[in-house]
Automatic annotation (TrEMBL):
InterPro entries: YjbR-like_sf, YjbR/MT2646/Rv2570-like
Presence of the UniProt keyword Transferase in the record: yes
Keywords for the protein's UniProt record, in alphabetical order: Transferase
GO molecular function: transferase activity
Pfam short name (any one): YjbR
Protein name, per record: Phosphoribosylglycinamide formyltransferase
Lineage: Bacteria, Bacillati, Bacillota, Bacilli, Bacillales
Length: 127
């Protein structure tokens, strides 16, 4: 299986938009893994993963609470992330997003799921 880093115009736009949202959060790092996925992490735990996606185009996956996952899966364009969906991950294809701003709350929720308590408290004071 060939793994590619995000290189399409749509994928690069998606990474830039998500980077702008994720990097506002305390102690976030960006990493490209061996599969070519770009992830945003806190305390070395991913909370957003972006992939090129092949014929369907780029996709965004985010870790959310189980209750949020249920709500999102009831919507038309969200689906359970393969392999990790049972841990609260949901995905959406870039072509099905109306704006990245709509994902901001879910990105923040993912961060809070992955971050240590001290960073969650720090973020709550900023909000």
């Amino acid at each position: 299986m060939v793994h590619e880093q995000i290189s399409s115009m749509e994928g690069l736009k998606m990474v830039a938009a998500v980077r702008e949202l994720a990097m506002r959060l305390p102690e976030v790092t960006e990493q490209v893994d061996a599969f070519g996925h770009t992830s945003f992490r806190v305390n070395d735990k991913p909370f957003v993963i972006l992939g090129e996606g092949g014929t369907e185009g780029p996709s965004l996956s985010v870790k959310v609470l189980k209750t949020t996952q249920e709500i999102l899966l009831a919507q038309e364009h969200f689906y359970k992330t393969p392999y990790i969906g049972h841990h609260g991950w949901v995905s959406i294809l870039d072509k099905n997003m109306t704006s990245y701003g709509e994902m901001e709350d879910y990105i923040r929720e993912g961060y809070m799921c992955a971050a240590p308590k001290r960073l969650v408290k720090q973020l709550q004071h900023l909000l």
